[in-house]
Structures are given as structure tokens and as C-alpha cells.
Amino acid sequence: MNKVAIVTGAGSGIGRASALALLEDGWKVALAGRRADALEATKVAAGELGGNALAVPTDATDPAAVKALFAATKAAFGRLDLLFNNAGTGAPAIPLEDLTVEQWKGVVDINLTAVFLCTQEAFRVMKSQSPRGGRIINNGSISAHAPRPLSSPYTATKHAITGLTKATSLDGRAYDIACGQIDIGNAATEMTQRMTGGVLQAKEAAVSTVAMPSAITNGSRSTWVTAGIQIRISAISVNT
């Protein structure tokens, strides 16, 4: 029985490379993305294996479009074994206070809400099919652990993806649905082409003193964060 995958953002970059690798490994793959021409280009790049690919132009921020994507995949291939939540975007590298609400929401919609919508539909299919279950892979980012300056929308959503991944894994366990996450650093794709000329990086900050919260008392355990450095305090008495 052929295994079936859905890859979002399959028209370029990591999404295209992943879709092609799955096709080469014998999978049937639904290619999701906003640009129909880019999805067709992915099919062409697959050569003879393109016959095992289904291009489904999809706005993954639209609940109705996501439902249609999963319905088309099930109608064409009969089931779903893997969802790769790959589609993502960023905001302009400008000071946080200069970001518009629309720019913030645009990143949240693609990087977080779309992942939730696709995960929700994947659960519905994977719970009801036989054999039951499947796998979900979320494309996180190393930025969730070591963000660059001027990246608050992207960094915040990638932190959120880590939380959603953990919650999805927990909620899917009873139904044989596993969820994991990959945190990629810099991948050479069309989206990161601008980075070849250099990218602003955070400067190291030396912390000589740390303000302690008055809530810490004898025998307590707490985490206090100063200047992006996480310090674990255990069993310490602090006089304030």
C-alpha cells in the first residue's frame, strides 16, 4: 500500500525538496501552496514520478481551503499517513515598534494558524482511517532558541510551534498520531537568498548582576531571565 503525504509550501524551497524526496521514496504526495504554477513546477521536477503527485492550490490560512485540500487528498489517494507543516513566512526586519498589526497578523496566520488548521484536519482523517494514525512534522526554526534582532513575529510564532507540537503529540498519542518538529538553521532556498549578503546578528551581552524577584525564598526553585540569558536558581535565600 502506497503511503500518502501532504506537504504545505510545496512549490519551492524546503517544501519542494521534501516533496520530491517523498516521491522518490515511493510516496503519493499532495502538493499544497498558494501558487498553482509553482506546484506544477514541482510536479515537472519529479519527472515520471510526477504522476504520483496531486497539486492542490491552497491558502492554508483559510479554513475552507484547508478542508478542501484534505478532502481532495483523501478522494485521490484514500488516506493520509504524513502531514508536513512546512509553509512559513517572515516580516520585514524593522524595529518592533514600527511593525504594523497587519504585518504581525500576516506572520501569525501563516506560521501558526495555518499549522493549527492543517493539524486539525489531519487529526480528523487520521483518527477515522484504517489503519488508524499517522505522522505530523512541523517546521520550526532555530530562531525559537536563538533569535536574530528585528524578528519578533517570526520568533514568536516559532516558539508557538514548539508548544503546538508538544500539545499535538500529547493529544494524538491515544490515536496513533505522532507529532515531531524540525528546527532548521539557514537553508539555501529562494526565501533566504537575501541573507547571502549578511544578516544582522545579536551581540553577546555580559551580565554582571542579576535582579532577583522577591518571590524567591528558601527552598524555592524558579527561573529568572535577564538580557536573554536564562538562569536557574535552586534552593537559594534572597533578601530583598
Describe this structure in words.
The chain is built from five helices and eight strands, in the order βαβαβαβαβαβββ. It has 240 residues and is α/β, with parallel strands linked by helices. It folds into two domains: 4-197, Rossmann fold (3-Layer(aba) Sandwich), CATH 3.40.50; 204-240, no CATH class. The strands form two sheets. Strands 3-2-1-4-5-6 form a six-stranded parallel sheet, sandwiched between helices. A hairpin with a 2-residue loop joins β7 and β8. α3 runs parallel beside α4 and α4 (101-128) packs parallel to α5.
Which features characterize this protein?
single chain; 240 residues; alpha/beta; Rossmann fold; six-stranded parallel sheet; two-stranded antiparallel ribbon; 36% helix; globular
User: What is the arithmetic mean of pLDDT?
Assistant: 85
CATH architecture of the largest domain: 3-Layer(aba) Sandwich
Number of helices: 5
CATH class of the largest domain: Alpha Beta
Summary of the model, kept short:
The chain is of the alpha/beta class and 240 residues long. It is built from five helices and eight strands. The chain has two domains: 4-197, NAD(P)-binding Rossmann-like Domain (Rossmann fold), CATH 3.40.50; 204-240, no CATH class.
